[in-house]
Amino acid sequence: MWSAAPAVTPFLDGFNFDADTKRVMGLAFEMTLAALRLSKGAEPSKEIVAKKIIVLAREGLRDPNLLCEWALNDLRKQSHVRPPSVGDSRDRPSRKKLHPRRR
Description:
Blueprint (H helix, E strand, L loop, with lengths): L4 H4 L10 H18 L6 H16 L5 H16 L15 H4 L5
Helix pairs in contact: 2-3, 2-4, 3-4
């Protein structure tokens, strides 16, 4: 039987989980990496994903689909910095400056 646990095991930092929980975390880890399209060599990003999943598992979450979904949601919230949009009125000159009235 294939097990994804080894992928997340290096990031456990001494926390002990039973074999089934490690398998679920490993599966969620792989699902999250696939959803983020992280390739080989993205080690800092992989560590962040693994730690998110470990925290959620420590809180009692054991469903790989929910672990993946919640990890993705947490990551989106942390990286959500909204740059001004192109049409943001704060960044464009006022209409008066664009079209001065003629008298």
